[in-house]
Design the sequence.
């Protein structure tokens, strides 16, 4: 029984009155202090009504009459409660209403959070099918290079780590290897004869198509485009390096034609992995093609090639990109983003759907955007999908993030701008002060962290594209210049003479000046260079590090295509030193 029932105010009343008051007080369901006041008031009222009546029966009849006048206990309790609420002071009413609003908001937040967290994405577009359709040309199956590359990769024998280190230190020259290292390189080349034969066969094909597949997994949530398997890249890169070393060995043995054939095979292969491909595939292609072209330039510098050989080589090089040098293609990465969206957003609700907590942290580095860099190490430790501490953070981040339609629209707009800027030369981007990273930084970091995390580094990719284009065209110009020298006994006074004399169709453009590559005839030959990424003409002076090693497309100097600088070979320390 409630404490209010034991109050002495009821002890002076007949039991029928006391029980009636107790029933009213219990049904009020209000604060204890208010109920005590009401109890005291009712008790006083009953006492006043019966204080002059001495007869017990008469008092009981009087009490029964009062109870009848008061009416139903439940209804009276409600009326008393309402009356007490209306009599509260204004400040008390304000506090009560505020607490009620807060409680309602908390309830709504709980309901909304439950609805938010329980949302599920529904992937409706199979982007894997789409990228396979995009990358597959309409040509004959027998013209596909992939079966040959696949065989070559299966037969490939990787060089040992020590041999790889020796080859790197040799800077591409057999003579910089000691006798034992030369033997190991020869052995590695000979072990891969069959693999190289298949690689060359593949390089001669018209196109290369390999159907993309997901990594082996039985989990449905692993079927994201970012989980597509690309196992061939490392093997293609190693086979390209094998071809370069085969060419170097052939040139050292005086087998010029064989050396050129090996270099061309590597360059042609690079052409197979450009266009509608993943960015990482295109980057590998750029790397092995540039290596082949720089090696061709080295061979030209040896002076062992005739005018006819140079002419044939120039024609073969020009065929590699007969339709024009391909710049980076980022369409696959756009589809990758759309695929992530359909797998981490719901597809209905306000704004087209919301980001589902717990699905995105394992797919992107977006969680890094939720914290400041100075506590990144701590976050790297706690960002674990299995740790309950992260659930509230993921939920809060998902609630703050923009809705699906807005996210896709913003990404597409920035992506279109990025592609447009990426197809402009670095010089044009520099002079017009176009910076896609700056545009991206204007997007609120927390509201669009998925976009921040997944936008490709377009400025860097654009520069890589144009560097590859300049190298490709400079190689052809060097071949033309050497042909001119062998035919006429001298280099042209100006580069334009190469066009008028039929050695070249057009002059290569320097993407870092938007002018032709700088050509200068000098006393003992000529120099050909790009002003480089600092956009300044340093007179053909290369960027050199503290070890005296020149670097292409790096630092404050020019990128010199000709003359070929002899590599600086690090001194090998003998065990006795």
Sequence:
């Amino acid at each position: 029984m409630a404490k209010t029932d034991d109050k002495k105010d009821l002890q002076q009343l007949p039991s029928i009155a006391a029980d009636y008051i107790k029933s009213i007080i219990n049904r009020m369901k209000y604060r204890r202090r208010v109920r005590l006041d009401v109890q005291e008031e009712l008790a006083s009222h009953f006492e006043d009504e019966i204080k002059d009546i001495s007869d017990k029966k008469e008092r009981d009849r009087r009490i029964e009459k009062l109870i009848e006048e008061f009416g139903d206990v439940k209804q009276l309790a409600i009326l008393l409660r309402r009356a007490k609420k209306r009599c509260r002071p204004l400040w008390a009413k304000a506090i009560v209403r505020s607490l009620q609003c807060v409680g309602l908001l908390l309830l709504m937040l709980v309901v909304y959070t439950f609805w938010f967290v329980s949302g599920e994405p529904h992937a409706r577009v199979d982007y894997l099918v789409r990228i396979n359709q995009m990358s597959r040309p309409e040509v004959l199956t027998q013209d596909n290079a992939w079966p040959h590359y696949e065989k070559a990769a299966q037969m490939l024998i990787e060089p040992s780590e020590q041999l790889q280190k020796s080859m790197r230190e040799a800077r591409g020259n057999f003579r910089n290897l000691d006798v034992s290292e030369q033997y190991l390189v020869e052995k590695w080349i000979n072990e891969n004869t069959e693999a190289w034969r298949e690689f060359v066969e593949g390089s001669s094909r018209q196109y290369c198509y390999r159907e993309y597949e997901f990594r082996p997994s039985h989990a449905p949530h692993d079927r994201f485009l970012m989980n597509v398997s690309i196992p061939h890249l490392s093997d293609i890169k190693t086979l390209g390096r094998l071809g370069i070393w085969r060419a170097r060995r052939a040139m050292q043995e005086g087998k010029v034609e064989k050396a050129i054939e090996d270099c061309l095979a590597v360059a042609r292969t690079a052409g197979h992995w450009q266009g509608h491909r993943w960015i990482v595939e295109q980057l590998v292609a750029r790397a092995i093609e540039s290596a082949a072209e720089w090696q061709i330039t080295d061979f030209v510098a040896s002076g062992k090639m005739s005018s006819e050989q140079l002419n044939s080589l120039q024609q073969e090089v020009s065929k590699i990109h007969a339709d024009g040098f391909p710049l980076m293609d980022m369409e696959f990465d756009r589809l990758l983003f759309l695929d992530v969206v359909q797998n981490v957003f719901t597809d209905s609700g306000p704004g087209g759907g919301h980001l589902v907590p717990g699905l995105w942290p394992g797919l992107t580095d977006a969680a890094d955007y939720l914290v400041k860099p100075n506590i990144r190490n701590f976050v790297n430790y706690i960002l674990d999908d299995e740790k309950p501490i992260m659930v509230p953070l993921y939920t809060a981040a998902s609630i703050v993030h923009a809705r699906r339609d807005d996210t896709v629209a913003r990404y597409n707009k920035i992506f279109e701008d990025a592609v447009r800027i990426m197809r402009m030369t670095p010089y044009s981007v520099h002079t017009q002060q176009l910076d896609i990273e700056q545009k991206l930084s204007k997007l609120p970091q927390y509201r669009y962290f998925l976009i921040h995390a997944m936008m490709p580094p377009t400025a860097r990719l654009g520069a890589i594209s144009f560097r590859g284009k300049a190298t490709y065209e400079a190689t052809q110009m060097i071949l033309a210049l050497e042909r001119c020298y062998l035919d006429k006994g001298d280099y042209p006074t100006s580069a334009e003479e190469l066009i008028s004399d039929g050695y070249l169709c057009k002059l290569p453009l320097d993407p870092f000046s938007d002018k032709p590559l700088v050509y200068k005839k000098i006393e003992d030959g000529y120099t050909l260079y790009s002003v480089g990424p600092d956009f300044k003409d340093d007179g053909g002076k290369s960027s050199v590090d503290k070890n005296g090693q020149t670097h292409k497309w790096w630092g404050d100097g020019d990128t010199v295509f000709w003359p070929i600088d002899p590599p600086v070979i690090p001194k090998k320390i003998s065990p006795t030193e």
Summary: The longest strand covers residues 525-530. Confidence is low (pLDDT under 50) at residues 1-6, 365-385, 567-577. The radius of gyration is 41 Å. Residues 458-488 form the longest helix (31 residues).
